[in-house]
C-alpha cells in the first residue's frame, strides 16, 4: 500500500515566509500605531473614571448605612414604651416599671442589631433616674456614661456626631433632656470599610476628614501628605467642583478623588500614587508592540503558508498514523519532496517496519515477562516472626515445657522447609492449605493458646489442583498481625476452601474487633491499586500474583466477616487463565 505525496514546489519555505511578511505586515503596523495611541487616551480616561466611581460607590454605601442608623435612633426615640416610661416613671408600680424597662432593652437590642457599625446603644431616662445600655445593662445615675453624654451634649453648635477620644457617638435628646439616647459607632468597622476602598489599589490611602477638623480616620500611618490633601479637597469643594485632582506632593504625583459623607458632615478622600495608575499603560505600549509583532508573524505566516507548506504533507502523515492505529502496519509513504518532510516520511516507513517487528517480539516475550514478575513477587515474602519463634522455643526450654518446644520446632522446621525449597512455582492446593494450617499452629503456640483456629477439610476434587506457592499463608499472617492487635482474648481464625463457578475460593476469617468501616475501605482501595504500589505487603503481593496469572477476575477480595472481623476471599478463576 502506497500513499502519494505532493510534488516539490519551485518556491522554498523561507522565500514564501519573507514575501508574505513584507506584503502584509507593513500596513497592519501603521494601522496598529494609530489605534494604540487612541486606545491609550481612552484607557487613561477609563481608569480615572473607574477610580472615582469605585470610591463614590463605597462612600455612598457608608453614608446610607450611617443614615439608616440615625433613622433607627429617631424611631427609637418615639418608641411607645420609652415615652410611657419617661412620662409615668417613678409613679407606677415596680412590676410595671420593670416590664417597661425590659421592653426598652428589647428595643435597644433591635437597634444595636440593625447594623454591624453599632457597637453599643443606650438611653438615659430622667423620670426613673436610670441609664439603660446593651453593654452595661441597667444602671442608676449619675454614672460615667451619663456624665460623658451630659458633657458632650453641652457642645455648641450641635455637631453631626460627637467624638470623645477614639469613640464616635450619635446622641439625641427629647422631652427637655428627659430622654437622652446614644449610639456608639465601631471605629474598627469604619476602618475596615475604608480599607475595603483602599484595597482597590495597592499604593492608595483612604481617610475621613475635613479641612478644619483634620483627619478623623485614615488607613495609612503616613500623615505627612494628609493636611495638603484635605486642603486641596476643601478648596475644590468651595468651588463646587467634584472632579479628581492630580497634584504633586513632596515629590510624588497623586490622583485624589473625594465624595461627601453627609451623615457625618465629612469628606471621604482616596488618594493614589499616580504611577500606579499610569505605569502599566507605559508598559502596555512596549508589550503591545512586542506581542503585536510576534502575533502578526505567527498568525500570518501560518495562516497563508501552512496549507501549502505543512498542512498537506502533515495530513498525509496523520492519515498514515490513523491507519497504524487500526493495526494496519503494512503501509509506507512515498515522497518525491526534498525538504524536511522527506526525512519524516522515510522515518515513518522505518518506524512502521520496526514497530511491526517489535510487536511480534514483545508478544513472544509476554509470557516470559509474567513468569519473571511472579518470581520477583514471590521472593518478596519474608516471614518476620522467625526471631520471635526462636525466642518462644528458648522460653519453653527454660520453663521445662519440652513437649511444646519440640512441637513448635517441628512445625517451624516444616514451615521453613516449605518456603525455602527451590522447586516448581506451583504446588498442589492441599499442600498450600496444609502449610497455612502449620503456620496457624505455630502462631497459636506462640500466643499461648489465646488464639485458636478452625478449619474445614478440603474435598477430594480440588486437592490436587495446582496453585501458586505461598498465597494462603500471607493472608493468615495478616490476620494474626492486625486482627488481634487490641489484645482480644479467645480470638478465632476460620479457614475453608470450596469449588465455585469453575474456580476455587479460599476464605480466611477472624472474629477480631478492631476492624472499622474506614479501615476496610482503605484496604479495598489498596488492593484495587496494588499493581501501582512500589512496596507491596503480603496481601497486595498475593493479589498481584493471582491477577498476573489468572486475570483481573481473580485476586484478593475483602469484606466484613459474619464473625465480626475481616473476611478475605482468594478467588482463582481458571476460565481467565492466560
From TrEMBL:
Residue ranges occupied by any HAMP domain in the UniProt entry? 308-360
Which keywords are on file for this protein? ATP-binding, Cell membrane, Kinase, Membrane, Nucleotide-binding, Phosphoprotein, Transferase, Transmembrane, Transmembrane helix, Two-component regulatory system
Segments spanning the bilayer are 12-35, 287-310
Q: How does it sit in the membrane?
A: Multi-pass membrane protein
Q: Where in the cell is it found?
A: Cell membrane
| Gene3D superfamilies, sorted | 6.10.340.10, Histidine kinase-like ATPase, C-terminal domain
**What superkingdom heads the lineage?**
Bacteria
CDD domains tied to this protein = HAMP (cd06225)
Q: Name one Pfam family in it.
A: His_kinase
Q: Does the keyword Ribosomal protein apply?
A: no
GO MF annotations for this entry?
kinase activity
Q: State the protein's name.
A: Histidine kinase
